[in-house]
Amino acid sequence: MAGWAWVDGTGGVRQGWPHSGAVSCGGAAGPGGAAGGAEFTLRWDHSAESRARLAERVFVGDREVTLFELLLQIFEDRGLRVDLR
Fold first, then answer.
1. Could you give the dihedral angle defined by the CA atoms of residues 85, 50, 75 and 15, in that order, rounded to the nearest 10 degrees?
2. What is the radius of gyration, based on Cα positions, of the chain?
3. Which pLDDT score, from 0 to 100, does residue 39 have?
4. Is the torsion defined by CA of 46, 82, 1, 24 positive or negative?
5. Rounded (10°) CA dihedral 9, 59, 78, 43
6. pTM, 2 dp
């Protein structure tokens, strides 16, 4: 069964299913998707506000990115799809 998570980008409630820790610290998701290889989509509500709040720039290797861009890259690297809303 495909998984999903919901993030309220205003800093409010965060909910998700299944609660596998796929997007939590030390997440269960590895290359190719969420735990067990199931598909996983993260629905990020209010992503424009999150992008504005996570605008601090950090160096990743030899390039500079925003924290928001870094999070998206981490999700992508773990095989998660992100639906920005």
1. -70
2. 13
3. 76
4. negative
5. 10
6. 0.60
